[in-house]
Design brief:
Blueprint: E1 10-16, H1 23-31, E2 38-44, H2 51-57, E3 63-66, H3 72-82, E4 87-90, E5 96-97, H4 101-111, E6 115-125, E7 131-134, E8 156-159, H5 160-166, H6 177-186, E9 190-202, H7 212-230, H8 235-249, H9 258-276, H10 283-286, H11 291-296, H12 302-306
Parallel strand pairs: 1-2, 1-4, 2-3, 6-9
Antiparallel strand pairs: 4-8, 5-9, 6-7, 6-8
């Protein structure tokens, strides 16, 4: 038996819908990995652009379906049901793996048999693929998950048994499904942090984590997810929601005035916080009120733009 045949199969699921501009780069980043046993499954939602032409060019090097679905979570769950791998991951059709990403993840699992999920670092890129920043990842701390999502989805791999144990993605979620998944997986398995860059996370106008049309819905879903799991709405999560609510409420060019947006957000914050927490105040939230944190509110952060870091 070939030694490679003994290595665990890794199934990569790519949900897709009208991302023909980017999906070939995504596919190439998977198929060019130096790990020998990879199964790539593309689940397309019925694209009307050139996506299917791209998929057909790769023949049997990948598996794909194209049909209407119920959204990204449904597509990923469908791909996971088709997968044969012991290790799973999903890579959105506008993101990419860096060289050696899959091999490094498998090697981490090999050397840490008790770990069910491993994640690494990721670069933010612009539409052309130019690096513009880094996703703010951090070593795993279950207590901090309520406050911030420090796990970058395209740089995350998990054992199929863990995925099966939690039942996959919640189909009712359209933005925070990965965050919800990490919280549920953290109750079932140990997480490992790999201090290496594994992926790129593309920011562009049609990205769900960047588009202003989706920003408020994203923040609302994140806040609802935190409250559902922790029975607590942390102040920074509430502020993230209020920030985007303020941008939505302010007319025209006023929403682009940072100081005005922050001031309105701070006015909305105590109202939304008290409603979300049923009139209770936690000492953890009081401790967040520091000069340093207040100063940060008046800066333009890429994390605010993506909606994952208020």
């Amino acid at each position: 038996m070939n030694r490679d045949d003994k290595r665990p199969l890794v199934s990569i699921i790519t949900p897709s819908y009208n991302q023909g501009e980017y999906i070939e780069e995504t596919i190439r980043s998977v198929l060019s990995q130096d790990y020998p046993r990879i199964e790539l499954i593309v689940v397309d939602g019925g694209s009307t652009d050139n996506t299917l032409d791209v998929l057909r060019r790769y023949g049997e090097r990948l598996r794909w379906v194209s049909e209407r679905d119920r959204g990204q979570s449904d597509a990923i769950n469908k791909g996971a049901a088709m997968a044969s791998g012991e290790i799973l991951a999903w890579l959105n059709s506008d993101d990419t793996y860096l060289e050696g990403a899959v091999r490094k993840a498998v090697e981490f699992f090999d050397s840490h048999p008790d770990v069910g999920v491993v994640y690494g670092k990721s670069y933010y890129t612009d539409p052309s693929g130019r690096v513009v920043g880094e996703y703010p990842v951090a070593p795993f701390d279950p207590g901090r998950l309520a406050v911030t999502n420090f796990i970058c989805q395209p740089s995350t791999f998990f054992r199929k048994m863990v995925w099966d144990a939690v039942g996959g993605l919640d189909l009712s979620l359209h933005y925070a499904m990965d965050y919800d998944l990490w919280i549920r997986m953290a109750a079932q398995a140990d997480f490992g942090y790999l201090d290496e860059f594994l992926s790129t996370y593309r920011l562009h106008g049609q990205s769900k984590t960047v588009s202003p049309a989706h920003a408020l819905s994203l923040q609302r879903e994140i806040l609802d997810t935190v409250v559902r799991h922790y029975r607590w709405a942390p102040a920074n999560r509430v502020y993230g929601y209020c920030h985007h609510l303020a941008e939505y409420m302010l007319p025209g060019g006023l929403a682009r005035i940072k100081t005005l947006t922050v001031l309105l957000s701070l006015m909305l914050l105590p109202i939304k916080y008290m409603i979300s927490n049923r009139g209770m105040v936690r000492i953890e939230d009081v401790k967040m009120i520091t000069p340093g944190n207040m100063k940060k509110l008046f800066k333009d952060w890429i994390e605010v733009s993506t909606g994952y870091r208020p």
